[in-house]
Amino acid sequence: MKVKYLGILLFAILAFYGCDDNTGTLGMSMLPDSDGISATTTTFDVTTKSLLAEKVYAKTSTGYVGKFTDPAPEGFGSYEASFLTELNCTDDFKFPAVYDPEKHVGTMAGDTVVSAQLTIYYSSWFGDSLNPCRMSVYELDKRLENKHYTDINPKEYYGNETDKPHFEKTGYFELHKAYTAYDTSVPDSVRNATDSNGNSLFYPNVTLPLSKQFGNELLQLNRAYQRGENDFFKNSEKFIDNVLKGVYIKTDYGDGTILYVDRVDLQMQFRFHYVDSLGVKLTKKDGKDSLYYSTATVFASTKEVIQANKFESSEELIKKANETGWSYLKSPAGIFTEATLPYDKIHEELSNDTLNAVKLTFTNYNQESNKYKFSMSAPETVLLLRKKDMDSFFVNNELANNVTSFVATHNSIETNQYTFMNIARLVSACINEKKTAKQKAKEAAGTSWNETAWETEWSEGEGKDWDKVVIIPVVVTYDTNSSTPSIIGIQHDLKPTYAKLKGGDPEQGGTKLQIEVTYTSFNK
After folding, report:
1. Residue 243: count of CB within 10 angstroms of its CB
2. What are the tens digits of pLDDT across the range 303-333?
3. Minimal CA–CA distance to 120: which of 146, 159, 82, 157?
4. Are 242 and 232 in contact (CB under 8 A)?
5. How far apart are CA 364 and CA 361, in angstroms?
6. Looking at the chain, which terminus has fewer C-beta neighbours within 10 angstroms, N or C?
7. How far apart are alpha carbons 460 and 444 in whole angstroms?
8. Quick one: residue 373, left, alpha or beta (phi over 0 = left, psi -120 to 50 = alpha)?
9. Rounded distance, CA 205 to CA 463, Å?
C-alpha cells in the first residue's frame, strides 16, 4: 500500500472522530481488505471507590466560617469552618501626625484613638441567611507557619500569653458578636445604595468593637517607630513578628450558615482638624475648633500574608466514605473518588495497535436538590489526575496539562455526567512508565530476572498507585481578558457540594464502569 494513502486515511479517521465518538470503521472501503486498517472501539472495566480526603491544600484568600449540617437524615453529617489570618502592614506605615499649632503641620486633634474595630467583610454565603450565629475572634500569640492544609490546629496559635514580652503586647483580645448572614437591621436605603456608576456601596460585614486601649497601644507603638525607637512598622514581617501576629475567626453558635469572607480589616477612627491651604486649623464662629471624624482601614488581610482555613467534619463523613455500592464526591475537604484503570489489560490486548482516544465517564445519581431548603448541589467542575500527584498538583499550583491531569464540567441538563473525552495520553504515559521500569529492572537483574517477583515488588512499592486516578471537586479560574479564555488557576472547591457516583465495589453491590478505547490496527 502506498504511504501517501495511509497518511490520508489516518487524517480522515482522526477528523471524523473529532466530530463523533462512534468511529466504527470510517473510511475502510477506501483500501483493499488485504492491506487496510481498522478503527475500532472497545471497552474495559473500571472499578471505583470513595477516598476520604482528610486534609487538602487550600491556599486561598477566601476565609470560610460557620457550621453546616446536611439536612438529609442519611447525609454527610456536619462540618465546621474557621480560619486564621495575618494582617498586612504597608512598608514604613505611619499614623497621621498630630496638629502642631506653631508649625502648622499635621491634622490629628489629640494623640489618641476615638475607636477601633475589626470588620469581617463577605460577599456571599451558603445556607440560611437568617440563621442566628455568634462569631468569636481571638488574637494569635504565635506566628502562623506558611502551610495551607485544612487540618491546621488553631489552638497551637493562640492562648499562650506568657510567650510575649509585655512591652510588645497589644492585648490578646477575645471578641464575640451575634450576627445573621443577611443583616435585617440594615435599611434598604443603605443596602441598595450605589455610586455614580451603579456599583453597590454596601458590603455585608460583621463588625466587632476593639477596646480603645488596644487602639492607643498600636498608636503609641507607631509613634515610637516614627521616633526611631523600634522597627515594628517597617514592613509586614516586622509588624507581624512584634505587634499583631494575626487573628483566628470561628463561629461558636449557630448551625446552617457558612460565610465566604473576602477580607478582614482592622479599622480605627480618629478626630481631625479642618485646616486651610496653609495648614492652619479652622475654627467655628464661636471660636471652637472645627473638627471631623474619619475611620480608616489601617491593617488588612491581603494576598501578601498567610491565611489558613480549618475544616472539621463529623463521623458521618467517614461512614459515607466507607459505603461500597457507589462512590462519592464531597467538598470541602471531604471525599474524592478513586478509579483503578485497566492499563495492563489495555496493553495486553492492544499492544500492537494505536490508541486514538480513550473516553472515561462518571455518572451521578439524580440528586433531589429541592427536597430540603438548603441542599447541596453537585460539584460544577472536577479534576482527574494520577493519585500520586493529588497533593503536589495543588502545592505546586499546577494547571491541567491533558496528559496526566484533565478537567471536566458537570453536564447537569442532558446526561448528569462528568465526561473526560480523551485521556489516551495518560493511558499511554502510564503504560510506558511501567514498561520502562520493567526493562530497567530486567537489565539490572540479568539471568536472575523473575518477572512475577518483580510485578509483586513493584506493585507494592514504586508502582503502588500506578493505575490509580482520583476525581476531585475543584474551582477553575480563567483569564477573561482574552477572546479565548484560558485556565490560569485550579484550586480545591471549598464550598459545600456533593455527588453520588455510579460504580463502587462490584462484589459489594456496586457496578463496574466502562472505559471506551478507540484504536486503529492493520488488517491481518
Report:
1. 21
2. 999 999 999 999 999 999 999 999 999 999 9
3. 82
4. yes
5. 10
6. C
7. 19
8. alpha
9. 50
Angle at 430 between CA 426 and CA 432, to 5 degrees: 115
> What are the distances in angstroms from CA 26 to CA 23, 31, 67, 151, 523?
6, 11, 56, 53, 14
- 3-class secondary structure for 228-245? CCCCCCCCHHHHHHHCCC
Q: What are the grid coordinates assigned to 435, written together?
A: 514498561
Nearest to 144 by CA among 250, 263, 240: 240
For the chain, which residues score pLDDT lower than 50? 1-34, 164-168
Distance CA 170, CA 272 (A): 24
Contact, 88 vs 301, CB < 8 A? yes
Phi, psi of 341 (to 5 degrees): -95, 140
- Alpha-carbon distance of 53 to 360, in angstroms, equals 22
Q: At how many degrees (to 10) do helices 343-350 and 424-445 cross?
A: 80
> Angle 94-95-96 (CA atoms, 0-180°, nearest 5)?
115
Compute CA 369 distance to the chain's CA centroid, rounded to the nearest angstrom: 23
Instruction: Name every residue whose Cβ is closer than 8 Å to that of residue 144 and which is 6 or more positions away in sequence.
Output: 84, 86, 157, 245, 246, 306, 308
pLDDT in tens, 38-68: 889 999 999 999 999 989 999 999 999 999 9
End-to-end CA distance of the chain: 14
Q: In DSSP terms, which residues pair with 436 in a beta bridge?
A: none
Give CA–CA dist 12/219, Å, rounded: 74
Question: What DSSP state is assigned to residue 261?
Answer: E
What Cα–Cα distance (Å) separates residue 53 from each residue in 15, 74, 164, 498?
Answer: 40, 20, 36, 13
Q: Which cell goes with 297?
A: 482601614
Residue 468 near residue 387 (C-beta atoms within 8 A): yes
Q: How far apart are CA 176 and CA 161, in angstroms?
A: 19
**Contact call for residues 505 and 513 (beta carbons, < 8 A):** no
User: Residues 485, 491, 492, 493: what is their CA dihedral angle, to the nearest 10 degrees?
Assistant: -40
> Is 211 in a helix, a strand, or coil?
coil
Quick check: helix, strand or coil at residue 297? strand
Q: How big, in percent rounded to 5, are the helix, strand and coil portions of the chain?
A: 20, 35, 40
Beta-strand pair 291-300/257-273: antiparallel
When the pLDDT of each residue in the chain is averaged and rounded to a whole number, the result is 89
Of residues 246, 408, 411, 306, the one with CA closest to residue 61 = 306
Total Cβ atoms within 10 A of residue 40: 15
Angle at 26 between CA 24 and CA 27, to 5 degrees: 155
Residue 471, C-beta contacts closer than 8 angstroms, at least 6 positions apart:
329, 336, 337, 338, 339, 362, 382, 383, 384, 418, 501
